[in-house]
């Protein structure tokens, strides 16, 4: 910036003309930077060490609680099950492409990293965390009709399941019939 441009930018309105103004001229940059004094060099080194330390601390993963890990797996299982909506029911099938009721929940939870047995009764017995109807959370397995049917709770009073021959994987509301035939629920991965 030239000195005349800098002075023109500092022109003072007539009302303030009596007040003297000292123009500030920015320093001119040179091609080579000046060498930093030893104290500044030491501060720069210390600053970069501190930056590395803070980056190391940020890079460490925070460990999730057991309950948080279960919720992540449950969300994954629900998402996998929802992607199967419309697939046909086929007795004994565990996907992909066709499912029976226990095969759907087995497939979904396996994709979330949790192993379950193949049939409904064994699924109910193998998961230690039992859940009451009023405490259902998305991903919980719900068992009906004397452990003859299983579905997965998806939240908002609904479950996803593969209901019977001739039907397809779908989401149904949990109505009075479902509550009447409810045997129990479990929370895999807990």
Automatic annotation (TrEMBL):
MF terms (GO), sorted A to Z: cysteine-type peptidase activity
A matching Pfam family: NLPC_P60
GO BP term, example: proteolysis
Composition skew (Low complexity), residue ranges: 32-53
InterPro entries according to UniProt: NLP_P60_dom (IPR000064), Papain-like_cys_pep_sf (IPR038765), Peptidase_C40 (IPR051202)
Residue span of region Disordered: 32-68
Composition bias type Basic residues, residue spans: 54-68
Domain NlpC/P60: 71-189
Signal peptide boundaries: 1-17
Keywords from the named record: Hydrolase, Protease, Signal, Thiol protease
Similarity comment: Belongs to the peptidase C40 family.
Protein name as annotated: Cell wall-associated NlpC family hydrolase
């Amino acid at each position: 910036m030239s000195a005349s441009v800098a002075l023109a930018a500092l022109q003072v309105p007539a009302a303030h003309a009596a007040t003297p103004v000292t123009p500030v001229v920015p320093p001119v940059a040179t091609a080579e930077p000046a060498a930093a004094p030893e104290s500044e060099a030491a501060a720069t080194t210390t600053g970069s060490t501190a930056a590395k330390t803070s980056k190391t601390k940020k890079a460490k993963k925070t460990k999730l609680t057991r309950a948080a890990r279960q919720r992540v797996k449950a969300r994954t299982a629900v998402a996998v099950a929802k992607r199967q909506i419309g697939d046909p029911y086929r007795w004994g099938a565990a996907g992909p492409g066709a499912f029976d009721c226990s095969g759907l929940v087995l497939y979904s939870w396996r994709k979330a990293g949790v192993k379950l047995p193949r049939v409904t009764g064994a699924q109910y017995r193998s998961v230690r965390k039992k859940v009451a109807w009023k405490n259902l959370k998305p991903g919980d397995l719900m068992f009906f009709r004397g452990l003859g049917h299983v579905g997965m709770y998806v939240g908002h009073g609904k479950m996803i399941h593969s209901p019977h021959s001739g039907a397809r994987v779908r989401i149904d509301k949990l109505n009075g019939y479902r509550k009447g035939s409810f045997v129990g629920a479990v929370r895999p991965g807990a």
